[in-house]
Amino acid sequence: MKRYLLVFCMAAFTAAPFSADGKTPRGTAWVDSHGYSGCVLLENDLVRVILEPNCGGRVLEYSYKGVNALYNDPKQDGMVAAPGKQIPDPCGGRCDIGPEMTTPGHPELWKGKWRAEITGPYSARMTSVEDKNTGVQLIRDFRLDKNSTHLKFTQTIKNVSGETKKYCHWSRTFGDGGGICLVPISAGSRFPRGFTIYRDGGLVIRPDDHANYRVRDNFLIIDGEPPQSKFGLDSTVGWLAYITRSGLLFVKRFPTYPERAYAEFAALTISIWYYKDLQCELEPIGPAEFIKPGKSASFTEDWWLFPHPYPADKMVDLRALTAFVETNAKK
Prior knowledge:
This protein is mostly beta strands and about 325 residues long. The protein has helices at about 1-15, 105-110, 320-330, and strands spanning about 30-35, 35-45, 45-50, 60-65, 65-70, 95-100, 115-120, 125, 135-145, 150-160, 165-175, 180-185, 195-200, 200-205, 215, 220, 230-235, 240-245, 250-255, 270-275, 280-285, 290, 295-305. The longest helix has 13 residues, at about 1-15.
């Protein structure tokens, strides 16, 4: 197996332009970061992406000119799972599979060690173990545009069991806390107000506005600590935005499938978890995938970062934001 991987990597590198030092393809490097070794750096003149394979196959950094849009707890630096050792859920740009309530526990995928490889200029992959609890292996591919902040992220769920599996993509990216989360609501939502909240173990189907969240001009806006942390939407617009206190606009685009079934409890396409002023979890959710033995299913998110002042009054021009995203956050 090691010999096969070595041949594969050599072939991939031979076909790709190399960096000036001749060691890795352009826009890539092996680095130590946040107490971890063996991380992959994807970098251009605007943005740095650090991929961490030691604890859950995460994105530790997605930064514009040195400012990271992701939440990281320095107390977790270098944290790794080990037999008999309890560790907290990792932070950063996490990802997972769902449905949340019915997927078997999978600590080896969520907190375990992954394999990282550089696959070409500005590109890398992280691969999990074959997980016995879920019967799948996860592959995460990243490609950074050489001239912009655009990061393409594809998660592939591969069925390594002997039976058909039902799972979905579940992104769990932590944006740096205390920002303004903006999610467009689509016409025809099943929810009377376009979103739902989770309270006391159940759903509130017609939530009232609150000082720290509200609906305005067909957007759900969350700009402060809510009395409950979790929100759900069935939006089919296909993007969301988050303005950090450090002055960045983080945009995610992703496909939605109105004609397909979604496997989450409330058939959500998006979940938001806004926790105090520490972190905001930006969660695109994929449709239900029925994956036969040996087959795979993939879901792609496209990320961008732009400079954007954090408004002191927390008022965002939603029409201008929509026009900006449609013009500048293009695949």
